[in-house]
Amino acid sequence: MTAKRPQPRPGVLDIAPYVPGKSTAPGVAKVFKLSSNESPLGPSPRAVDAYKTVGLHLEDYPDGSATDLRDAIARAYGLDPSRIICGAGSDDLINLIARGYLQDGDEAVYSRHGFLMYPIAITGCGAKPVVAEEKDLTADVDSILSKVTPKTKIVFLANPNNPTGTYLPFNEVKRLHAGLPPDVLLVLDAAYAEYVRRNDYEAGIELVATSENVLMLRTFSKIHGLAALRLGWFYAPAHICDALNRIRGPFNVSAPASAAGIAAIGDSGHIERSIAFNGEWLAWVTKELAKLGLKVTPSVANFILIHFPDTPGKGAAEADEFLTKRGLVMRRVKAYHLPNALRMSIGTEEANRLVVAALKEFLGKAA
């Protein structure tokens, strides 16, 4: 007879755990980690100095409301700080939103190749994740709206999307919002917004400012290079902030992370250098891989999705093994329903050139 023991809530053991991009290449002296969309330029030196300074006083609790950080974000974007909530990265905030607005039997919609944390957070709250199909690896407004039912409480939209790098223009986001019932929360996850250089893109600030059911997520992990500190924030209507502050952990942002975030968001020069570097090398890598005959999904973020041929021995799995042996670590995206593709972060100049040279060798292209 099996002994009784505590059991998790129904559905928890059905969740496939989130697996981060790998970071090692056994037996290789120098590894280029291109699997997690990290900044090749790293954080602002000001952020590092601020982090070190606070590190001298680790005995003190942080400000439970992250007041100074919210004020810094508000100054940078012209926002009301009372409508900003900060957290330990976007993952923390996605789970906070799900906990606050989903219960058993509810539904939440996300797109086919959307961020894997969405279904994890949805299922963990006893709700049902509902997948909307995409068109050309891009979220499709009509498909999303067709999945909305009276049980729908949240729609998650990553814009730009990870791992595809595609985006919806602002007029399509507004069309999506207009088609949703007023009691459905639209979550715009704009983790890669700073990299987008398109005139028809807007991260979501305007829509949040004029709506009662839109929330915009942002992160310090990408453009600001602070992934190790786990720092994110969202901008939302006052009533949503009031509700979620009631269940938010009181010290969910550490003092070193807050100090580094304040310094990072104030270093506009470092931000602009990071944007310019990404723009230059995103275009270069895309062009060079196309010369090799590889299909690359057009990306507006700091990564690209590379599609491999169906030729035996030349697929994504074989390419990943070939690259890893050379210290070039990329991201398999099978879990995103993209079994024959790899996601590559835009890395340093050295890393980018090595990837192109290695893939030329892998494909057997003449020099």
UniProtKB/TrEMBL annotation:
Q: What GO biological process terms does the UniProt entry carry, in alphabetical order?
A: L-histidine biosynthetic process
Q: Which cofactor is essential here? A: pyridoxal 5'-phosphate
What domain of life?
Answer: Bacteria
Enzyme class, broadest EC rank: transferase
Q: What is its EC number?
A: 2.6.1.9
- Does the record's keyword annotation contain Zinc? no
Question: Which reactions are catalysed by this chain?
Answer: L-histidinol phosphate + 2-oxoglutarate = 3-(imidazol-4-yl)-2-oxopropyl phosphate + L-glutamate
Pathway note: Amino-acid biosynthesis; L-histidine biosynthesis; L-histidine from 5-phospho-alpha-D-ribose 1-diphosphate: step 7/9
**Keywords, alphabetical:** Amino-acid biosynthesis, Aminotransferase, Histidine biosynthesis, Pyridoxal phosphate, Transferase
GO molecular function annotation: histidinol-phosphate transaminase activity; pyridoxal phosphate binding
N6-(pyridoxal phosphate)lysine occurs at K222
Q: Which residues form the Aminotransferase class I/classII large domain?
A: 30-359
InterPro entries recorded: Aminotransferase_I/II_large, HisP_aminotrans, HistidinolP_aminotransfase, PyrdxlP-dep_Trfase, PyrdxlP-dep_Trfase_major, PyrdxlP-dep_Trfase_small
Q: How does it assemble?
A: Homodimer.
- Give the UniProt family note: Belongs to the class-II pyridoxal-phosphate-dependent aminotransferase family. Histidinol-phosphate aminotransferase subfamily.
Q: What is this protein called?
A: Histidinol-phosphate aminotransferase
Q: Which organism is it from?
A: Pseudolabrys taiwanensis
